Automatic annotation (TrEMBL):
This is UDP-N-acetylglucosamine 1-carboxyvinyltransferase. The gene is murA. It comes from Nitrospirillum viridazoti CBAmc. One of its GO terms (molecular function) is UDP-N-acetylglucosamine 1-carboxyvinyltransferase activity. Its EC number is 2.5.1.7. GO terms for biological process: cell division; cell wall organization; peptidoglycan biosynthetic process; regulation of cell shape; UDP-N-acetylgalactosamine biosynthetic process. One of its GO terms (cellular component) is cytoplasm. Pathway: Cell wall biogenesis; peptidoglycan biosynthesis. Keywords: Cell cycle, Cell division, Cell shape, Cell wall biogenesis/degradation, Cytoplasm, Peptidoglycan synthesis, Pyruvate, Transferase.
Length: 420
C-alpha cells in the first residue's frame, strides 16, 4: 500500500483547481439508469469512488464512453435489471442509489446491501421507507434488498423523512420522477449535491420544484431525453484546501469554489483568524496572524459538514486556546483522534465531542489513515509538524481527492508518495 512522506513547515501559496463534487457524481451516475437516452456528465472527478460507480453501472449494461478530460457519456439504452456482485458493492458504498432507478424503470430490483464504513453504520431504512411511500413492496433478506412496484408502476405520494438524509432524498427523487402523479418529499436534505441531482434530472426531462429546500415537489412520470450536465465543484475538497492554507499560514486561491456552498465553514474560519473572500475565479483563503480556538458542531446542510470535521480538528490542534468539536452525524467519526495525538495534538475524547487544546507545535511521526477524511486530516497536520510525517494506507485518499499530493506540492508542500 502506498504511503505519503510529508516534511512539514512550509507555507502554502498559489492556486488550486477544485474538482467536481464526489458526492454529486455518485447519484448522477446512478441516475443514468433511469433513461434509455444518453446522459453526458462534465467536470467528473478522477477518483476511485467514481471509477467504481462507473464499473457498477457497467454491470447493469450502461455503456460508458469517455470524452474530453473529466467528461463521460452514460448510455443505458441496453441496461438490464441485473444483480450487482458483492465484490463490486463492497467497494461502492453508494450502491443503494441504484435501487430507485432500477425499480422505477424495470418495476423491480434486487440490490446487495452496501458495505460498511469505518466511520460507522449507514443504514438504508429511510431509502426503503421512501420507496414504500410510492407503493413499492420492499423486503430485506440474506444481505439483499428486494423491491417490487405494484401493477402499473410506482404512484406519487407523500414521503416524510424522519431525518434529512442525503441518500434517502436522492433515492426518493430518482424513484419519484418515474412515478405517476405528484410526489411531495418533506424534510428533504438541502445539500447542494441534492440540488445538483435535481438539476440533472430536469435536464433529462423531469419536473422538479424546491430542490435545495426542505420540501420538494416532483411531477411524474418524466419523458426522458438526452441530457448534458456539468457537476458543481466539490465543497468538501474546497474546504479541505481552505484548512491547508489556514494551518500553514498560507494564501491559496481555490479556483471554482463557491462561497454560497461554504458559508458556514467560511464564517467559522474567519472566527479562527482566517480571511476568506471571493475572487473572479473562486475563493481566496489566507492567514497572516495567529489561529484562535473556535468551537464547532457538525450539522446537516447548511450547517458545518461532518466531512470537514477531521480537517478542522487538525487546524484547532495548533490554535491558541481550547476548542470543543462535537460530532452529531456519525457515531464513530473520531477514529483519527489517536493518530492525530501521535503527532502531538492534545485531544480529549468525551463521548460525541473532542476537547482540543492547541499546542505550540506538532511533531512528525508514522500514522495510519482509517478513512477518507481521516487521511487528509493527518496530511494537513503533517504540513505543519516538525520533521517527517509518514501517512500509511493512503488508498482511502484516492476515493475522494483528485491528485491531492500533486496539488499541494505545486503550492509549496514537501510531499512524496512512495509504494508501500
Amino acid at each position: 500500500m502506498d504511503r505519503l512522506i510529508i516534511r512539514g513547515g512550509r507555507r502554502l501559496a498559489g492556486t488550486v483547481d477544485i474538482a467536481g463534487a464526489k458526492n454529486a457524481a455518485l447519484p448522477l451516475i446512478a441516475a443514468s439508469l433511469l433513461s434509455d437516452r444518453p446522459v453526458t456528465l462534465a467536470n467528473l472527478p478522477a477518483i476511485t469512488d467514481v471509477e467504481t460507480m462507473q464499473v457498477l453501472a457497467g454491470g447493469y449494461g450502461v455503456r460508458v464512453t469517455r470524452g474530453q478530460a473529466h467528461q463521460v457519456t452514460l448510455d443505458a439504452a441496453a441496461a438490464v435489471n441485473a444483480e450487482a456482485h458483492y465484490d463490486t458493492v463492497r467497494r461502492a458504498r453508494a450502491t443503494a442509489l441504484v435501487l430507485g432507478p432500477l425499480l422505477g424503470r424495470f418495476g423491480h430490483a434486487r440490490v446487495s446491501l452496501p458495505g460498511g464504513c469505518a466511520i460507522g453504520a449507514r443504514p438504508i431504512d429511510l431509502h426503503l421507507k421512501a420507496l414504500t411511500a410510492l407503493g413499492a413492496e420492499v423486503a430485506v433478506d440474506g444481505g439483499y434488498v428486494t423491491a417490487r412496484a405494484p401493477h402499473g408502476g410506482l404512484a406519487g405520494g407523500r414521503i416524510v423523512l424522519t431525518l434529512p438524509s442525503v441518500g434517502a432524498t436522492e433515492t426518493a427523487l430518482m424513484a419519484a420522477v418515474t412515478a405517476r402523479g405528484e410526489t411531495e418529499i418533506l424534510n428533504a436534505a438541502r445539500e447542494p449535491e441534492v440540488a445538483d441531482l435535481a438539476a440533472c434530472l430536469v435536464a433529462m426531462g423531469a419536473h422538479i420544484e424546491g430542490a435545495g429546500t426542505q420540501r420538494i415537489l416532483v411531477q411524474g412520470p418524466a419523458s426522458f431525453r438526452p441530457a448534458t450536465h456539468t457537476l458543481i465543484p466539490d465543497r468538501i475538497e474546497a474546504g479541505t484546501y481552505a484548512v491547508a492554507a489556514a494551518i500553514t499560514g498560507g494564501r491559496l486561491e481555490l479556483i471554482g469554489a463557491r462561497l454560497e456552498h461554504l458559508a458556514v465553514q467560511c464564517q467559522i474560519l474567519e472566527r479562527a483568524g482566517v480571511s476568506v473572500y471571493p475572487t473572479d475565479r473562486g475563493l481566496m483563503v489566507e492567514r497572516a496572524g495567529h489561529l484562535r480556538a473556535t468551537d464547532v458542531s457538525t450539522e446537516p446542510y447548511p450547517g458545518f459538514p461532518t466531512d470537514l470535521q477531521a480537517q478542522f480538528m487538525a487546524l484547532m490542534s495548533v490554535a491558541e486556546g481550547a476548542a470543543m468539536i462535537r460530532e452529531t452525524i456519525f457515531e464513530n467519526r473520531f477514529m483519527h483522534v489517536p493518530e492525530l495525538a501521535r503527532l502531538g495534538a492534545d485531544l480529549t475524547l468525551r463521548g460525541t465531542s473532542v476537547l482540543v487544546r492547541g499546542v505550540e507545535r506538532l511533531r512528525g511521526a508514522p500514522v495510519m489513515a482509517t478513512d477518507l477524511r481521516a487521511s487528509v486530516c493527518l496530511i494537513l497536520a503533517g504540513l505543519v509538524a516538525e520533521g517527517e510525517t509518514v501517512v500509511n494506507r493512503v488508498y482511502h485518499l484516492d476515493r475522494g481527492y483528485e491528485d491531492l499530493a500533486r496539488k499541494l506540492v505545486r503550492c509549496g508542500a514537501d510531499i512524496e508518495r512512495v509504494p508501500g
